[in-house]
Amino acid sequence: MTSQRPFDWPGLMRAGMRGLGLTPAQFWALTPAELMLMLGEPAGAAPMGRAGLEALAARFPDHEDRCDE
Question: Which 3 state secondary structure label does DSSP give 64?
């Protein structure tokens, strides 16, 4: 059995309705991801930088597939 923190519905409702000025219908229509984005939570990983792109290109180099018939 894994222990999970309970979802803080009262806190999220306060943040959405008081902080963001959402109506209850607007609040409940949001997905959790949309609400977290509106509250300023990061939406995901940072975009890949030049070093990451170069490492990816080195690992999976482009090459021409030629069929010499």
Answer: coil
Q: Which bin fits 19, alpha (ψ -120 to 50), beta or left (φ > 0)?
A: alpha
| Residue 68 covered by a domain | no
Q: 7-45: per-residue pLDDT in tens? A: 788 998 999 999 999 999 999 999 988 888 898 876 566
Instruction: Kindly report whether the global pTM for this prediction surpasses the value 0.70.
Output: no
Q: Residue 1: what residue type?
A: M
Tell me the CA distances in angstroms from 52 to 18, 24, 41, one per residue in order.
Answer: 41, 43, 24
| The two three-digit tokens of residue 4, written as one number | 């999970």
Q: Is 45 part of a structural domain of the chain?
A: no
Range of the domain at 35: 9-39
Total structural domains in the chain?
Answer: 1
